[in-house]
Amino acid sequence: MGALMAKLLLPTLSSLAFLPTASVAAKRRFYVEAMVYLFTTFFLMFYHACAGPGLGVLCFLRYDILEYFSVYGTALSMWISLMALADFDEPQRSTLVMLGVLTIAVRTYHDRNGYGVYSGPVGTAVLIIAAKWLRKMKEKKGLYPDKSVYTQQIGPGLCFGALALMLRFFFQDWDYTYVHSFYHCALSMSFVLLLPKVNKKAGNGRDPATLGFSTLCCSCI
Using alpha carbons only, what angle is made at residue 205 by residues 37 and 129, rounded to the nearest 5 degrees? Predict the structure, then answer.
């Protein structure tokens, strides 16, 4: 009985895999990204908990609302991770992030179960990144960014991301509990790998633009 309960609760527990992702993002000074990962963790955890046995008391919102925000948070996490990788300057960066926030909200409301809710943001972000980097390569007349970014970030990050989406859409019927839990872990690993090592746009150590993650949390409260 205990093993059965553990299996049923595994998707809920695996949702916590995004907590280390949020921690890594905060340490690298990607504070907005960290808050989005925490948002996603919160709704994923309660969404799966409400579907678990005897945990209906945790459903503080309607089940369809929890489902909506869990899908929305996941898609938004994909978008902002790729926008962080693109390394745009302001105001392009904030404009593109807000574009994702608004369009993903509409797309998720329209159909939260189809391929497009994830493939749309990912495909659009990849095209934007490719356009920017090809222009940089033309100006630089060489590889952009450095080879290490492709081998240490983009390659492994996209591999884990592709694995996560394959598990989510093509293999979930095999064994939902285990496959969906591996999907959470693979996706969180993808975000960690895709995030640059440090947020260069966060300012230097004495710059007022530098804002601690704990300060952000306290200001929200």
Answer: 45
pLDDT in tens, 107-144: 999 988 888 899 999 999 999 999 999 999 999 899 99
What's the pTM value of the predicted model, to 2 decimals?
A: 0.86
pLDDT at residue 51, as a whole number: 77
DSSP string, 19-88: HHHHHHHHHTT-HHHHHHHHHHHHHHHHHHHHHSTT-GGG--S-HHHHHHHHHHHHHHHHHHHHHHHHTP
Contact predicate 19/45, CB 8 Å: no
Q: What is the spatial distance between Cα 11 and Cα 66, in angstroms, rounded to a whole number?
A: 15
Cβ atoms of 100 and 120 within 8 Å: the answer is: no
CB 36 within 8 A of CB 213: no
Contact (CB, 8 A) for 92 and 129 = no
